[in-house]
Design goal:
Distance between the termini: 43 Å
Helix content: over 70%
Mean pLDDT: 90
């Protein structure tokens, strides 16, 4: 079965969307990598504050994905992307709150 028949758009459109997203966020992956390393190092520390920091970082990444990827980039080719964005932001808020 041809997978491209199941997609709402051409696979090349999806590739171009990811390409433009990567250009849009270019310096951010390096900062994210450092933040992930810092967060990973916190896993091995003791204390109550580490849990709040780890959940805040996870929340930030989740909200970033909702707003920057789903709302600003993916919504161009998918009409359901604003709903995905709202759900990601809501879940990010839950990660932060819990």
């Amino acid at each position: 079965m041809d997978v491209s028949r199941l997609m709402m758009f051409d696979p090349n459109t999806y590739i171009r969307m990811h390409y433009s997203y990567n250009l849009f966020i270019w310096p951010v992956p390096w900062v994210s990598l450092l933040l992930i390393g810092f967060t990973f190092a916190l896993i091995f520390k003791f204390g109550r504050i580490k849990n709040r920091i780890i959940s805040s970082v996870l929340s930030g990444f989740w909200i970033w994905t909702g707003i920057v990827f789903h709302l600003l980039q993916y919504s161009v080719i998918n009409i359901a992307a604003p709903l995905f964005a709202a759900l990601f932001v809501f879940q990010g808020g839950l990660f932060f709150w819990l």
